[in-house]
C-alpha cells in the first residue's frame, strides 16, 4: 500500500516521505541529506516546521534562487493573485487572449531597451532560452541562410538545464559536462575578464568574424555570469559584442533571467553598457517569486523575418503559455518594483554587503570577495563543503545555498540593514566552515 498524501504529518513524517519519493534539484535519489521543512514564509524569513540549530525561522539570503525580490507573502502580490483567481486561474493561449497577458507584454516592451517589441511568454527561464535559440535559428532559415545555426558564447556561463541551453553552458567543469558528446557543438571563447582588456575584446571580434557564416547568434549573460561561477565583467564587452554582431550579421541574445529587474543596480544589466540585444530572456523575478513564468522578447527584425519564412510561425506553444494567474502577478510585481525607489534599496543592500562581507577576505581559503548591486560573493580556493557551510549559516539564523567554490547571496530588496548584517555573518560562518 502507498504511503498516502502526507497530510497532517509532522516534520519527521514529511522528511520520510520526501526521502522516499521526492527528487530534489541537483541531487541524487534518494537524497543524502535531509532538507529543512518550511512551514510558511513572510517578509524575508522562512519559518521552519521544526527548529534547526536553535532557530525556528531563517533570514533568506537567496531570494528563493533570486526570484523573491519583494520577499514573501507580500500583500500587494497576494491581492493580485486572489483577484485573478476569482476571474480565472488559467485559459489556453491558442486562439484566446486576456488582459493580464496583454498588459504584461505591453509593460515589458515599455521598460526593456529598444528595439525589443514582441513578447513570447513561456514557463521557465530555461524554456525562454530554448525559445530564444529557436527564434534565432528559424530567423536565418526563414531569410534563406540555413547554414547559420551555431551559437557563440564565452566560457563560465550558465543558461539552464534543458537541451539547447545546456549546449551554451560552460562545457568544461560545469554541471552539464556529462552531455558534452551529445549536445550541439557551439563556439566558445575564454571567460570575460573582470576588467576591460583590449586583447580579450579582440578575441571576441575575431571569433565572431571567423565563424560568422555559421553563427545564428551570440548569447551571453550580461555583466554577471550566474550559476556558472558568479563572475562579474566589464560592461564594455557588451558594446564589443553588439558592434561585432552588427558588423558580421549575427544576432545578439542577452540572458537576463538572473540580472533582470534591478539585481545589478540597473533595471536590466544591458543598461550598464547602453546597448540592446536582438533577443532578451527574462524570468526569475518576473513574478516576484510567486509563480513560474518567463518571457522571450525580440526585435521586429527577428519576428518579421520568421513571419515571412517558408514556415511563417514560431512552432512553440507551452500548455500554460500566458497563464492568467502568473501574468497578473507579474504585472503587480513590476508595478510594485517601479513604484518605489528600488535603486536606492539595491544600493543600500550593496553597501551593507560590502561592509559585512569584507572581513571574509581575511579568512584562510578565501580567494575573492566581490559585490555588485544586491549580489555578494565569497569565492573560496577549494570546493565548498555544502553540508558544513549550510549548517554554519543556519546556526547564524540564515538560509544560504553555496555551490562549487562559492558562498554567495542575493537578498530580497526589502531586506533591512540588520538582516543584511545577519546574512553577512552567515556568509562569514559558511566560508569559515566550508
Topology of this structure?
Layout (H helix, E strand, L loop, with lengths): L10 H11 L16 E5 L2 E8 L2 E6 L2 H4 L8 H13 L11 H13 L4 E7 L2 H18 L7 E5 L8 H5 L19 E3 L8 H14 L3 E6 L3 E2 L5 E2 L3 H13 L2 E5 L23 E4 L11 E6 H8 L16 H15 L3 H16 L8 E7 L2 E6 L5 H10 L2 E2 L6 E4 L7 H17 L1
Parallel strand pairs: 3-15, 5-6, 5-7, 7-10, 10-11
Antiparallel strand pairs: 1-2, 2-3, 4-12, 8-9, 11-12, 13-14, 14-16
Helix pairs in contact: 3-10, 4-10, 5-9, 7-8, 11-13, 12-13
Subunit structure: Homodimer.
Catalytic activity: (8S)-8-amino-7-oxononanoate + S-adenosyl-L-methionine = S-adenosyl-4-methylsulfanyl-2-oxobutanoate + (7R,8S)-7,8-diammoniononanoate
Protein name: Adenosylmethionine-8-amino-7-oxononanoate aminotransferase
Describe the structure.
The chain has 434 residues and is α/β, with parallel strands linked by helices. The chain is 36% helix and 18% strand. It has two domains: 11-73 and 341-433, Aspartate Aminotransferase, domain 1 (Alpha-Beta Complex); 77-339, Type I PLP-dependent aspartate aminotransferase-like (Major domain) (Aspartate Aminotransferase, domain 2, 3-Layer(aba) Sandwich), CATH 3.40.640. The chain is built from 13 helices and 16 strands. Strands 4-12-11-10-7-5-6 form a seven-stranded mixed β-sheet, sandwiched between helices. Strands 1-2-3-15 form a four-stranded mixed β-sheet. Strands 13-14-16 form a three-stranded antiparallel β-sheet, covered by helices on one side. Helix 3 (75-87) packs antiparallel against helix 10 (324-338), helix 4 (99-111) packs parallel to helix 10 and helix 7 packs parallel to helix 8 (236-248). The chain is globular. The modification N6-(pyridoxal phosphate)lysine is found at residue 284. It is found in: Cytoplasm. Its main location: cytoplasm.
Amino acid at each position: 500500500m502507498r504511503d498516502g498524501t502526507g497530510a497532517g504529518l509532522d516534520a519527521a513524517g514529511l522528511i520520510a516521505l520526501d526521502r522516499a519519493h521526492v527528487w530534489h534539484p541537483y541531487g541524487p535519489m534518494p537524497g543524502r541529506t535531509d532538507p529543512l521543512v518550511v512551514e510558511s514564509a513572510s517578509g524575508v524569513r522562512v519559518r521552519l516546521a521544526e527548529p534547526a540549530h536553535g532557530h525556528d525561522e531563517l533570514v533568506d539570503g537567496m531570494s528563493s534562487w533570486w526570484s523573491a525580490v519583494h520577499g514573501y507573502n507580500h500583500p500587494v502580490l497576494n491581492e493580485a493573485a486572489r483577484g485573478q483567481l476569482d476571474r480565472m486561474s488559467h485559459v489556453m493561449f491558442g486562439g484566446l487572449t486576456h488582459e493580464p497577458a496583454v498588459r504584461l507584454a505591453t509593460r515589458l516592451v515599455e521598460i526593456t531597451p529598444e528595439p525589443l517589441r514582441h513578447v513570447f511568454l513561456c514557463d521557465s527561464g530555461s524554456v525562454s532560452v530554448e525559445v530564444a535559440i529557436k527564434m534565432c535559428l528559424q530567423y536565418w532559415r526563414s531569410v534563406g541562410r540555413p547554414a547559420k545555426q551555431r551559437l557563440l558564447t564565452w566560457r563560465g556561463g550558465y543558461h539552464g538545464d534543458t537541451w539547447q541551453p545546456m549546449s551554451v553552458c560552460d562545457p568544461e567543469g560545469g554541471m552539464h559536462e556529462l552531455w558534452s558528446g551529445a549536445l550541439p557543438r557551439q563556439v566558445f571563447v575564454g571567460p570575460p575578464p573582470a576588467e576591460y582588456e583590449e586583447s580579450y575584446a579582440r578575441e571576441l571580434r575575431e571569433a565572431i568574424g571567423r565563424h560568422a557564416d555559421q553563427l545564428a547568434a551570440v548569447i551571453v549573460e550580461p555583466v554577471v555570469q550566474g550559476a556558472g561561477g558568479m563572475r562579474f565583467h566589464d560592461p564594455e564587452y557588451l558594446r564589443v559584442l553588439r558592434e561585432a554582431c552588427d558588423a558580421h550579421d549575427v544576432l545578439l541574445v542577452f540572458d537576463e533571467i538572473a540580472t533582470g529587474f534591478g539585481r545589478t543596480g540597473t533595471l536590466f544589466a544591458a543598461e550598464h553598457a547602453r546597448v540592446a540585444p536582438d533577443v532578451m530572456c527574462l524570468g526569475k523575478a518576473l513574478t516576484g517569486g510567486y509563480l513560474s513564468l518567463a518571457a522571450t522578447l525580440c526585435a521586429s527584425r527577428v519576428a518579421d523575418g520568421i513571419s515571412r519564412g517558408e514556415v511563417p510561425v514560431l512552432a512553440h506553444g507551452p500548455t500554460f503559455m500566458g497563464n492568467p494567474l502568473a501574468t497578473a502577478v507579474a504585472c503587480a510585481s513590476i508595478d510594485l518594483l517601479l513604484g518605489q525607489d528600488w535603486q536606492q534599496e539595491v544600493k543600500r543592500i550593496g553597501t551593507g554587503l560590502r561592509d559585512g562581507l569584507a572581513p571574509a577576505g581575511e579568512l584562510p581559503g578565501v580567494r575573492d570577495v566581490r559585490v555588485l548591486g544586491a549580489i555578494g560573493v565569497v569565492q573560496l580556493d577549494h570546493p565548498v563543503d555544502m553540508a558544513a557551510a549550510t549548517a554554519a549559516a543556519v546556526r547564524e539564523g540564515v538560509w544560504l545555498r553555496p555551490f562549487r567554490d562559492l558562498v554567495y547571496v542575493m537578498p530580497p530588496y526589502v531586506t533591512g540593514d540588520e538582516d543584511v548584517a545577519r546574512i553577512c555573518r552567515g556568509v562569514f560562518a559558511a566560508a569559515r566552515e566550508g
